[in-house]
Structures are given as C-alpha cells and as structure tokens.
Amino acid sequence: MSIEPCVFIVDDEEPVRSALTLLMDSVGLKSESFPSAQEYLDQFDASKPGCLILDVRMPGLSGLDLQARLGAEKIHPPIIIITGHGDVPMAVRAVTAGAIDFIEKPFNNQSMLDNVHRAIEQDAKQRGETSRLQDIEKRYDDLTPREKEVLQCVIEGKRNKIIASEMNISQSTVEAHRSKVMEKMVANTLSDLMRMALLLKLIS
Amino acid sequence: MSIEPCVFIVDDEEPVRSALTLLMDSVGLKSESFPSAQEYLDQFDASKPGCLILDVRMPGLSGLDLQARLGAEKIHPPIIIITGHGDVPMAVRAVTAGAIDFIEKPFNNQSMLDNVHRAIEQDAKQRGETSRLQDIEKRYDDLTPREKEVLQCVIEGKRNKIIASEMNISQSTVEAHRSKVMEKMVANTLSDLMRMALLLKLIS
DNA sequence: AGAAAAATTAGAATATGTGATAATTTATAT
DNA sequence: ATATAAATTATCACATATTCTAATTTTTCT
C-alpha cells in the first residue's frame, strides 16, 4: 500500500496555481501549490511520490534552476515545465536535462493532464526500481572487503581455484567467503547474484 | 581499423550547406551534403559512421520527418536539428525524439562543432555496442528451439534436474543441450552466458 | 524416399560447488 | 584489554556440472 501521488505546483502567479489545482482536483489528483521554488524546497520530502509542474519565470530560483538543483542532488522527479515566454534554447535545455515536457502558457488542459499522468506513472516506476536497488545496496554494503573481492571475482566467472590463487588464500577460504556472500545477498543461485551485480553496476 | 566518420548535412539552402561544409573542412571532418531528405535517404548506408545535421524546413520531407522515419526503422544516428524559424513545441518534439540539439540559425560555429564532436563520439560508442550485440544475436539465432528453452531455464538459475523435469526430458538431454548452448554462444562460464543474456534482454 | 539436422538418452570419469562443523589468527573497536 | 568481527584454514560428505563417447529416434527439408 503506497502513498497517494501528489502534483507539486510551483508558480508565482496565483491564478495559474489555482487553475492547476482545480484541474488536478477535477480528475481526483492530489496537489500542493507553492509560490516559489524556495518554499517548495523547504518542505521537500523525497519520500513523497508524484511529479512537479514548474514555472520558468519566478522571483528567486527559476523553474530551470530548481530542476538543476534537484538534478545535482541526483533527485529526478518527473518535471513538467510551463512558461509564459519560452524560447527555443530554454526548451532544449529543459528537455535535455530530463524534463518530461516544456509547455507554453496558455496550455491545453487535456495535454497537461496527459503529461501529468505520464509523469506520475514514470515516478511510480522509478520509485519501484530505486527501492529494489536500495535493498540490494544495503546488502552489498554489509559485505566485508574480502567478501566484496570474492564477489567481484565470482561474477567475472572465475573458478574458486583461480580466485584462491589470485588472492593468495586457500580454496577453503574462498568457499567460506563465497557462501557468506550468497547468504548475505540472499541469492539462491549464481544467476540471482549476477542479476544483483548488474543492478549494482559491478559488471563491465 | 574503422571507417572515418562523416557529417551528413541535409539542407535545401545551398549557402547553408557550403557554410557547414567549410566549417567541417576547417577542423578536418569529412562531410557530405544533400539538398533534400530524399536524396539523403537514396544514398543512405547504415554502415557509414557519423552524424546528421538536418534542416527543419525543406521541400518534401522535413528534417523532423526524416528523424521520425529513421527512428521508425530503429536507426538512431545522432541528429542535430537546425532551423530558421523554430518554435518551442518543435524543439521539444525533436529533442524528445532523441535529437542531440535543436539550434536556430544563425548558429554559433563553435557550439555547432562541439555538438558535432559529441555526436560523432556518441555514434562511435553506439556502433561499438551495436556490433557486439549483433554478434551475440547471430549466435543466439543459431540455437535450436530446444536449446533456447534450456538457455532460458539456465539463466533463470534452474538446476539441470529441475529443467529436465519441467521439460519432461532426461537430465542427460538437458546436459547435452546445455553444453551445445555454451559452445554455440562461445561462453566459457555461466557468467559469460548471463552477460550475453542480459544484452539479449532474456532476463526479467 | 533419403539425407541432414535436431532431439533424445546413457554411462563413466572428472571437476566443481555446497553445506556443515570446527578451529586459529588477525583486526578493530569500545 | 578484551570482546567482537573478520579472515583464515581444513575436512568430509554430497550434490552438481562438465566432458567424452556412442547410439537411437524424430523432424525437416530436398
């Protein structure tokens, strides 16, 4: 049972905020409005699922600044940019930086909703992947240095005998580490381990 | 030893073509010019490495049409779009469809060259990956149906005994198929096989 | 129909990996 | 300094996988 997704609206113009709020209400989507990027950041909580609608031109941080700020923190919620006076380079920059869409006001309600729905789906998908990955990362972090070394060799397809000679330890030790690795990573088979190693990007 | 990359310039205006040609010449980059998308398509050869510079507004197929056409054929050379009269939705569409950049004329020579160099690098990288993948696909295609079934089970981590019972065949048969698979795929170890299976997207 | 490829099975020798149990030696941190 | 964790080793029994050789049956294609 996951939390209901929310549309975070950041725009300094009150009429735009209330129009968007009403639009989201009309399809039963939860939303929250902020008159500035800073106020959004002040309450920011990475655990809240949903997407962002950002105005470009605002006092203080612009929407693009906010997008860049989040990106720098490796936070990538789906973002829809809206603007009164957009230009091409600005649009290219936003989309290249990962924005779902870059829309000029006045926008079409239906296409905005389409974007929002797509954004929310994307966020849900990302969150699922991220949380699975974090589980695996936690297990990996729990490995001792030696165990990590052995894991690396195992996923490279090296036999225990080879690993032993490369690490200058006995085969027994390798077996011990290896079995600890399987246990700690909660892998039943080698292919389970390989799949996790992939997610952890341990594989060339 | 790979073929020298080429910048394919598609623009109906002769002055633009010659300006770009000169620009490429000035940094020793090979280029070829075409006055229309159709003429580019007529000589198109997927084996030629490089990138594309496409004008949006042209008689016949537009640059965006050509981009879409190539995309529909799963051909994804790096594309730089240039335009005299671009608008925001057009730029968003191009970049969303994978264009490296969308630039309004008159463009800055240096930033064009930066884009081209980035594009050529990206193409080289893609080609490397694609050719490795194609090698592996060829091997996979060479597997018999039964061998493919066994491969699928193996990468799911199933033991020979289990595979045998699921396929209603003897363990010996599974072993025979399995060893053929390793041979045909040119895999020395299970992890080699897993890595290939990943590229082939045989893994969930 | 006849040849070729694919699928099937078996047996035996060998190599590898797994699991359980136990014990010793380093490190490391409180 | 002394628990605690990490790293090390060994051994035995058992399960699995690999390699080789050889043969039979079934499909498939010409």
Would you kindly provide a written description of the structure presented here, covering whatever features stand out?
The structure is a homodimer of 204-residue chains. Chain A is of the alpha/beta class and 204 residues long. Chain A has nine helices and five strands. Chain A has helices spanning 14-26, 37-43, 63-72, 88-96, 109-141, 145-155, 160-167, 171-185, 190-199, and strands at residues 6-10, 30-34, 50-55, 79-83, 101-104. Chain A has a five-stranded parallel β-sheet, sandwiched between helices. In chain A, helix 6 (145-155) crosses helix 8 and helix 7 crosses helix 8 (171-185). The first copy, chain A, is elongated, with a radius of gyration of 23 Å. The structure holds a DNA duplex (30 and 30 nucleotides).
